[in-house]
Amino acid sequence: MKKPYESPVILKTRMAISDRAVNSLHHSQTVRSTIDDIAVNKLTDDYGSPLFVFSEKTMRQRYRDIYMAFSTRYPAVTFGWSYKTNYLSAICSILHQEGALAEVVSDMEYDKARALGVPGENIIYNGPNKSVHSLRKAIADGASINVDHLDEIYDISKVADSMGRKVKIGLRLNLDAGIHPQWFRFGFNLESGQAMDAVELISKTGSLIVNSLHCHLGTYIMDPNAYVIAVQKMLSFAYEVEDSIFGFKIESIDIGGGLPSKSKLKGTYHGPDIVVPSIDEYAEKITTAIYTHKRDGNTPRLILECGRAIIDETGYLIVSVVASKRLPDGRKAYVVDGGINLLYTSFWYKYNIELTRQVGGLNEESVIYGPLCMNIDVIEDNAFFPSIDRGERIVISPVGAYNVSQWMQFIEYRPNIVLIAMDGSVDVVREAENLTDIQSREIIPERLLARPKI
Ligand SMILES: *Cc1c(COP(=O)(O)O)cnc(C)c1O
């Protein structure tokens, strides 16, 4: 049949580059073939995949840069290493060598610090759940305890009385520094008067002395002015306490951690290089706030408990492609051998995802799934890759903060963790697990060992 006649139309060509092309330009492949000059593929050949890799060089450098930023601006600065951010023994040991105290938030972390040889007087004991048993140890060891709630004041005073000791304690505060959501669940609220009530109660115990104030605003605090407000409020509260009838002298103010690392929060458009202020900016504003609000002749010690800002960028996870798939919506999908079991922070942060070599072909929208039998096990749902083969290595970073402490054992063994030393040598600092590790605490009751006769 003859087709009906249609008059020709001239369509205007859209000159704009298609969204997809723009995306693949934006997401041009970045390649990471080495970590501290060691080939990524050599690392996985030697230590398996997946593999966590930490750089001692970056770690010491980060610590020194951040410490210098504060200590060159203010004469009395102490750092506590936030154990919960990463409590691998090797990592804690490096930071203790650099001069950090141990900042611990549980019985377990307290024990870990002591087992690593940290003397009690170099431990800051925070957290909302300190057992009476651990408080007794901490008091005997001379640790700095920051109290979280009234029940703890009661516990500490009982322990102090039973030991016939006078005990100096810090008071954890929560306050409005313009950060939303505000963390009011830890410590005593400043603005409502709860904190001053706690000071009064402490003075009545007779055995406890408040000598320090603590406030940890939260994590990944992107606004240096929040610390400025916190410092101003803490100092004015310190002088209010000193001027009251209780006779306490505040020797230090501990502003906690929370300085951001250069990781990218999900749902943010600009990269961290644009939106995350420099450490110098935090140090400048925080120390200026102290000089502005402190009284002449008084130089309270400034304590910081940085976690992520020191460690996040020192850690990488190498994974391998196990399989590729095509999803019904047309996207390419890859299954890799490490997922949210190893990367708990993937719920909040968008990592750098890099191949170890330039791979030819067009970039296309790809999803990266972990190995778990769970729908939520997604490392990245919007990666741009050329077609990559089974066995290809992918390097995920920064992953040094909170992953190695919050990871979970669910259905997989946890892999080796290696540390690249300053001289380029590589040490395993945590061995891959095996079935013995997984089952070592299990007990099968005798009666369950009987098998039916078939
Ligand atoms: C978690 C925590 C830190 C460390 O926080 P980062 O955001 O990793 O710097 C410091 N102090 C206390 C009390 C904490 O709970």
UniProtKB/TrEMBL annotation:
GO terms for molecular function: diaminopimelate decarboxylase activity. Keywords: Pyridoxal phosphate. One of its GO terms (biological process) is lysine biosynthetic process via diaminopimelate. Coiled coil: none annotated. SUPFAM superfamilies: Alanine racemase C-terminal domain-like (SSF50621), PLP-binding barrel (SSF51419). Residues 69-310 form the Orn/DAP/Arg decarboxylase 2 N-terminal domain. This is Diaminopimelate decarboxylase. It comes from Candidatus Omnitrophus magneticus. Its cofactor is pyridoxal 5'-phosphate. CDD domains: PLPDE_III_MccE_like (cd06841). Pfam families: Orn_Arg_deC_N. The keyword Ubl conjugation does not apply.
